[in-house]
Every structure is written in C-alpha cells, then in structure tokens.
Amino acid sequence: MSKEKTPRALKENEAKAVARMLRVSPQKLNLLAQLIRGKKVDKALADLEFSRKRIAFEVKKTLESAIANAENNHSLDVDDLVVAQAYVGKALVMKRFSPRARGRAGRIEKPFSHLTIIVREVGAAPAGA
User: Which residues fall in a coiled-coil region (predicted)?
Assistant: First the structure.
C-alpha cells in the first residue's frame, strides 16, 4: 500500500533545473536571470558563455542541466527549447564581523541564493513566416 503518485507540477512540454545555495546575492544573480529569460536556449548559452560575471558559469551549468532534463527525461526536442522562466530566490545569509576603528566591529553579510530555470518546447515556426 503506497500512496498515490503526485501529479507533475510542470506541463508536458516543460522541464526544469534548480541550483541551490549559490554564493552570490540574489540581486546580482537576477541580472543574469533577466539576461536569458525568454530566449532560445542556444542564444542563452552563448550569452552566458561570454558574460563577464563570475556566477555566469553556474547559471550556464543550470541551464545545461535543464536542457538535459528536457531531452533525457521528457523526450523534448532541444532545438525548439526556450527559457520560459528563470527566477531567483533568497537563501541563507552568513553574518561575519570585521574589525573597524576604535574597537568597533562592522557586520559583513554574505548572502546565498537559489536559481530555478524552466525550459519549454515551442512548436517550430513555419518556414514562410
């Protein structure tokens, strides 16, 4: 007696990948999420490849994981994938203290964030359009 299988949260033509505990602030990570949102995956991968931001490597790995999930787990065509959603969530914030002048201490916050990328298969555009 097992419990019923939970229904799939995504549509049949979607796949997702999640990167947790990335060592970057959500505000900085959201800049890269905005960069790839709504683009075809090959264009998004090219943009991330040549981005000068440090965390672009991790975002690219997450996007590649979402593409692999779509291809291997859900049998979607890689050439027709677009980045449907790319959103950022806050994770924990490590608090550290740094010595300052006159015996005081300055608080330093080191934030972490989560990244979720959902890719969707769109129908191929007609040749005449």
Answer: none
pTM for the model: 0.89
Q: List, for residues 22-47, the tens digit of each pLDDT value.
A: 999 999 999 999 999 999 999 999 99
What gap in Å lies between CA 114 and CA 87, rounded to an integer? 8
CATH number (domain holding residue 58): 3.90.470.10
pLDDT score, position 127: 52
| Structural domain of 26 | 14-121
* Residue 60 placed within a domain: yes
- 126 lies in some domain: no
